[in-house]
Amino acid sequence: MLVKAFGGAVNGIDARIITVETDVVAGANFFIVGLPDSAVKESQQRIESALRSSGYKLPGKKITINMAPADIRKEGTSYDLTLAVGILAASEQMKYEDIHNYLIMGELSLDGGIHSIKGALSMAIEARKFGCKGFILPKQNAREAAVVNDLDIYGVETISEVIGFFNGTHQLEKTEVDTRKEFFKHIDVCSFDFAEVKGQENVKRALEIAAAGGHNIIMIGPPGAGKTMLAKRIASILPPLTLQEALETTKIHSVAGKLQGHVSLMTERPYRAPHHTVSDVALVGGGAFPQPGEISLAHNGVLFLDELPEFKRTVLEVMRQPLEDRTIQISRAKFSVNYPASFMLIASMNPCPCGYYNHPEKECVCSSGVVQKYLNRISGPLLDRIDIHIEVVPVPFEELSKQTKSESSNDVRKRVIQAREQQQQRFSNTSIHCNAQMDTKTLQSYCVLTAEGSALLKQAMEKLGLSARAYDRIIKVSRTIADLDASADILPHHVAEAIQYRSLDRENWAG
Asked: What pTM, to 2 d.p., does this model score?
């Protein structure tokens, strides 16, 4: 008997429907065709044991399973439940009339239990487009799939529940999530707060400007100055995720298997901080079984690279294109996938190998030329994509011992949101979302300097030895500072403040 069931395959962060055709006839042997990988082929043993543990059996006949379309490689163990249901229906051990109305996915354990899968949200979105009535999947993934409206979501724990559901002997409980209520309930929840940071007011100001304009920033300072502590808190001053951004971010983390079971929708901007031993593939994504990398997991959030010069040169260079295009295309001989990568880069570094160059109290022990050599580990093209350079100095005891609280993240965030709203109005007819994304043509339209501001910038470039690449960056940052002041024009003091955020461009910075 021939029966059709439906599963899903993830490509990038999107899914497509896989038709599983099962034919059980007289004979022997078990065949799976349609480009399955080893994990799918091994499903026979898991299915056989799961059925036996649940009081059913694998029919002693010839079983042929075709997974269409056959030109797409089927990977992973998520098809176990789809294949098992197809076999039971085709061998008439289970009613089959309603199977075609549901997308069915899940990994089977040997005792008939069902383990979680990756990409449940993407599959649910595709199931709704395909016209499915419902989606049967592991209970651990039910809440994330339930974010999709107009689709019945049933979370199951054993294969017996699924069989009973189709036979009409067991009622499955529908999982329902009020997406908007869930989203707005946690939208302002932040794990860290700027109020916990003592001193460093100039660095907080630089981070506020970076958040307001979506600028990349690098912090240079000795060990223990608070660079990591500050970086962890920048997500708390970024504007809250929109519902569309939350859905997109959740899809990426769902495909990567990074969502916790109780989470239905990510409401906090992601913060990723990979170790400096990270590989190229781990950072940008890909691999034998394509997965989103750290830059995609940081989409709509923050990517923090601590001790930037310690990262391998090849790892840093692969970030050039994603920083510009805000997307990454992974191309291999057998596949090509696109992952979004619109993130805010926050980097930190010591000024030299010993860490104490330009320290107000401790002496640097690095020999002549070592500081510049250490800085040269970061290429010019990468530094060109970092708008703000800020030096971080240790906080004196007097500041640390103060009992007064600093300004909270909520207060700073209000100013950032106000600045972003101005940018949305300014770029409403373009594909640009914030000042950091402006190109040369847009700069000429929206960032006209006054004669005094232009003269100040010219003088600074000549006197401080600023590089040509600093010119556009200074103007972009000036525009953001003006937005924070709710000023329509870029005034000279906005330019003056922006100039001081180009430390690494000064010719004499490294001595």
From this structure: 0.89
